[in-house]
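Morning, I've got a small favour to ask if you have a moment. It would help a lot if you went through both lines with me. I owe you a coffee for this, so here goes:
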Amino acid sequence: MATSSTSAASPLAPYAQVKHHLKDELARGRFPPGALMPSEAELVAQFGVSRMTVNRALRELQAEGLVERVQGVGTFAAQLHRVASTLTIRDLHEEIAARGHHHHAEVHLAREETAPAALAERLGLAPGARVFHTLIVHHENGVPLQCEDRYVNPACAPKYLQVDFTQTTPTHYLLEVAPLWEAQFQIEAASPTAQEARLLGVGRDEPCLVVTRRTVSRGTPVTIARLVHPGTRYLVEGAFKP
């Protein structure tokens, strides 16, 4: 395989550069379904990045159904019948940076709380258990883009409240400490709450795209997040290439 390296000039993070290279190779048919793909060691040498960086790229490709990983054997191009339409969990900071724009976050709440029964059940906890709660507004070029209301299982991320979420996003941090195994999504068009409207600088009657997401790592629920986006500022896009 030809020698390559990540580009310092690229707006994409190093792991994303590796991921996009492999997706392009899959799209071009370099690796037919079931074919063995380059090993982590080969990708580390090819791109001049860390094994953790390569592992994250492969993990996200696996989450998208594009590759299959067999421990101790290697990574294989997914069989076509297993590739399906997916909604990828992406770091909002990286989405914004990929557009060449500036991201900053305002943390409005970061504390430990007692979980109501319904929330505790969804996080696999006993009623009244303690949970971590953050409320963060993400901005793109100074404009509020997303209101993120998130609850976290402390057992999966015990240092969550110690993280400076003006410097990194909860998504980025949680993917590092609790690798994603599965996720459930609910997407709807809805009006924001009074608090969400105020934080996003929109009217109560403005349609918003609301994504509710629950993630699980190694069989244990990690987080439940309500992500609210003003409809005039956010678009969900997707593409599929067999």
Observations:
- Strands lie at 67-70, 74-77, 103-114, 130-140, 143-152, 182-190, 208-217, 220-230.
- The radius of gyration is 19 Å.
- The CA atoms of residues 27 and 148 lie 33 Å apart.
